[in-house]
Amino acid sequence: MMATADEVQMEENKSAQRTRHFRDREFWNNRAKSFAGYAVQTHYADGFLKFMDIKPEWTVFDMACGGGTLAIPLAAKVKSVTAVDFSQNMLSILDQRCKDEGIANINAILGGWEDDWRALGIVEHDIAIASRSIHEEKASRCIQKLNEMAKREVWISAPVGHGPWDARLYEFAGRSCAMGSDYIYYYNILYKLGIRASVGFVEENHRNSWATYDEAFEDQRWMFHNMTPGEEEKVKDYLNRHLIYQSGQWRLPYDRKCYWAVMWWAKE
After folding, report:
1. Contact of 158 with 264, CB cutoff 8 Å
2. Residues ≥6 apart with Cβ < 8 Å to 263
3. Whether the predicted pLDDT of 86 surpasses 60
4. Tally of structural domains, the chain
5. In terms of domains, do 153 and 232 share one?
6. Which domain, by its residues, includes 79?
7. 32: exposed, middle or buried (C-beta count within 10 Å: 0-12, 13-18, 19+)?
8. Is the pTM of this model over 0.90?
9. Which one is predicted more confidently, 268 or 236?
10. Percent of the chain whose predicted confidence (pLDDT) is above 90
11. Would residue 67 count as lying in a domain?
12. b or e along 204-240 (b: 16 or more beta carbons within 10 Å of the residue's beta carbon)?
C-alpha cells in the first residue's frame, strides 16, 4: 500500500533524527580517509556500474562523490565527470587519486545538496548520479534537483534493510538498529513523483577484520552518534567476547554482508 503524505513526512522526520550526523560535514571530513580507503577495497563500484550501459560520449554529474568511489572508474569510460562533495577532505583524496592515476577528466567542486548547483557552475549532464547519499529528510527535493541536472538518465542507490550497520553489535549496546529508511522508502517517493525506476541489487562485504583490537574498536564508532560511556563499554565488551585472532588479523566470527539497491530511470 502506498504511504500517505502524512506518513511519508512522519518517516522523514524520524529518519532525520536517526541519521542527521551522516549529513554533517565534520563527520565526513573526519571519516574521509577510512571511508575512501574502505570503499576502493569492496566490489560496490563494480556492482553499481555493471547495471549501466556506459557510453564514451557521456558527461556525468556525481553528487556526493566521496573520494571517487564511482567517479574514478567512470572517468576511464566517459567523456568527463563533474564530482561534487561538501567534504573538502573527500575532494582532497579524490584529487590525489586523480594525480596518482593520471586522470584529467574529473572536475571536482566543493558543494552540498542544499547549494545552488548552477551558481557553482554546474550545468546539465547526460547522466546524474547520487550514490548512497540522498538526504532522507529532503529526499523528494534531492531527487528532483538531481533529475533536473540529467539529460538522459538518473542513477541513485540506497541501503537494503540495515545496510552496513551491524545489528548484533547495535542490539548488544542497547540501541535499536532502526537506522533510517531503506530503498523501499525512496522507491515510494519516486513513484509519487511519477518516476518508474528500475532496480538492481549490489552485495557488499562490510569490513570484518582489523590489524589490532584498537583499530577494530575505532572502526565501530561511526555507527554510534554521540556514543555514551556506557555504550563504549558495551562495544568493547562485545568485541572482547567475539573477536578471534586468525591469520594475523582480529576478526568477528560472522560475515557482515550488506546490500544496496541501485535505482535508475531514463528522462522522458
Report:
1. no
2. 155, 156, 157, 158, 183, 186, 187, 190, 197, 198, 199
3. yes
4. 2
5. no
6. 5-165+177-207+255-266
7. buried
8. no
9. 236
10. 59
11. yes
12. beebbbbeeeeebbeebebbbeebeeebeebbeebbe
| Co-location of 244 and 145 in the same domain | no
Residue type, 37: G
Q: Are 261 and 221 in the same domain?
A: no
pLDDT in tens, 163-189: 777 888 888 888 776 556 789 999 999
The answer to whether 140 and 247 have CB atoms below 8 angstroms apart is no
Backbone angles phi, psi at 65, to 5 degrees: -75, -15
- pLDDT tens for residues 98-124? 999 999 999 999 999 999 999 999 999
CA distance 187 to 197: 8
Amino acid letter, residue 179: M
C-alpha span between 228 and 214 (Å, rounded): 18
Domain containing residue 59: CATH number: 3.40.50.150
